[in-house]
Amino acid sequence: MDKKERKEIIKGFGRLIKRYKDIYIPGPDVGTNDQDMKIFAIENGIDNVVSKPADMGGNRIDELGAAARGVVAAFNALVEHLPRLRELPQFKTMEIPPVGELDVLIQGFGAVGANTARLFHENTRNYRPRIKGISDATGYLLNPDGLPWSQLFSMWKTLGNVAGAYYHERIMHGSHPVGSKTVFSNNPDNLLTESAFCLIPASPVFNYLDVSPITSPSMTCDRMGKWQMIVEGANTYSPDPARKAQRRRMERHVFRDRGILIATDYLVNAGGVIYAAHERIIPANMKELIQGLCRDGESLPCEVAEKISVRRIASKEKSKTARDVMAPAPVIGLNKQITDAAELLVESHVSIVTVVSEKGRPIGIVTNWDITRATALKLPMDAPLTKIMTTFRGISWPGKPCSACFRQKAEDWGSIVRALSKMLQIG
C-alpha cells in the first residue's frame, strides 16, 4: 500500500481504539513506528500513546532502536555463555569463531534490523560482528567480508527498503568498488540459505523456519544455512495451539538435530516495555535460558523460555500489594441517604462508591447493583445507606500483599459457605 493509504488506515485504527483510551495505550510494534504513534496522539490526545516523536515530547522508542538494543544485549550475553552448551550432546563439537570473525545475517532490515546493525558498531562495549547479509522486501545483499552497514542505515532512514536500491544505485550504476564480493538477489527469503555465526530474524514473519513447506515458511529447514545461534528480534510467538506445535517441531530439528541455539523473541526483544532495563534483564534472560537447557537436556528453547517468563511474572505478582491493584473510588459518609449515593455514582461515572465512618474509615461499599436492587424493592430514596450497603468484614490496607488479601477473602467466603450449609441442614 502507498503512504497515503497507510496513513488513513492508522488514523482509522486510532479512532477505533479511542473509546478504550482509559484502559489501553498503544505503542509501536512490528510494522509500526514513532510517526504512527504521532497520528494516534493527534487523533486521541498526546497523553494516550507512548513512543511519540521528539517534536511531541516523546521518547522515540522506535527511532532510538529500543527493540534492537535487546537484540544486541542478548547477542553479547549469548557469546559469553554459549560454551556451556557443549554439555549437551548436539553441541559437543560446536566451534565458536574468534571474536574478530563473528558475523550475522539480518532478516528484515527495518526498525529492528537496521538499528541492530547500527548499535553493534556504535558501542565499544559490544561485540562487533560483521554484517554479512541483510534482507528486506526488495531482496537481499550478501558480502562475506561485511556490508557497509553505515551506508545501508542512512539509505534505510531515507528510503525504507534498501536492498534493491543499493544494488541499482551502488553496484549496477554507482561507485561500488571493482572486485567487491557483494551479491544481490531479488528473493529475500534466500538469505536464510546462507551461513553465518548468527541469524537475526527481524521481519514480521512468525514461521521464518519450518520443517515442512506446507506452512509457507521463509525457508524450510532442509535448505537453511549453518548457524551457531538464532537471536529472534521480531515477534514470533503465538499462543495458537497449531502454531505452538509447529514451533516445537521446528525447534526439535534446529536445536536438537542441528545443534543451533534459539533465543526466543520475548526473552530478547523487550522493546520499549523495559527499555531502561535492557542491560540488566535481557542478559539475565540469556543466562537463564542456557542454564535451563543444560539442566534439562530434553527441553526445547521455547519451553525453557516459557518457564522463565511464567516464573518472572509469578514472582512479580507475589510482591504486589493491595495498593498496586487498587483503583480510586469516590467516598460517601455513612449518614447519607440512598439518593445521595445514586447521585454520586452518576456524577463520578463509576460503578462503586466507598462508605466511610465519621472518622473517615472505610466500612462498606454501595454499587450500581445496590441502587437497582433498592428500586426493585421499592425502598424510599431517602432511606439510610445502611439499608443497601455491603459492610466490610475485614479491610485490606494498601500495604498488605495481594496474596494475603486473597487468602483473607477466601476465608471470608469459606465462613459464609459454612454458615449457609448449617442453615440448610437446620432447615
How would you describe this protein?
The chain is an alpha/beta fold and 427 residues long. It folds into 3 domains: 3-60, no CATH class; 65-318, NAD(P)-binding Rossmann-like Domain (Rossmann fold); 324-426, CBS-domain. The chain contains 15 helices and 13 strands. The strands form 3 sheets. It has a 7-stranded mixed β-sheet. The protein has a 4-stranded mixed β-sheet with strand order 10-11-12-13. The protein has a two-stranded parallel sheet with strand order 6-7. Helix 10 packs across helix 11. The mean pLDDT is 85.
Order of helices and strands: HHHHEHEEHHEEEEEHEHHHHEHEEHEH
How many beta-strand elements?
13
Q: How many separate domains make up the residues?
A: 3
Q: What is the 3D form?
A: elongated
Family: Belongs to the Glu/Leu/Phe/Val dehydrogenases family.
GO molecular function, one term: glutamate dehydrogenase (NAD+) activity
Pfam family, one: CBS
Keywords: CBS domain, NAD, Oxidoreductase
List the helices and strands and how they pair.
Blueprint (H helix, E strand, L loop, with lengths): L2 H15 L16 H11 L16 H4 L1 H16 L21 E5 L3 H12 L7 E7 L2 E4 L6 H11 L3 H10 L10 E3 L12 E4 L7 E2 L8 E2 L8 E3 L9 H17 L3 E3 L1 H4 L9 H18 L5 H18 L3 H4 L5 E3 L4 H11 L3 E5 L5 E6 H9 L13 E2 L10 H25 L1
Parallel strand pairs: 1-2, 1-5, 5-8, 6-7, 8-9, 10-11
Antiparallel strand pairs: 2-3, 3-4, 11-12, 12-13
Helix pairs in contact: 1-2, 4-5, 4-10, 5-6, 10-11
Protein name: Glutamate dehydrogenase/leucine dehydrogenase
Keywords: CBS domain, NAD, Oxidoreductase
InterPro entries: Aminoacid_DH-like_N_sf, CBS_dom, CBS_dom_sf, Glu/Leu/Phe/Val/Trp_DH_C, NAD(P)-bd_dom_sf
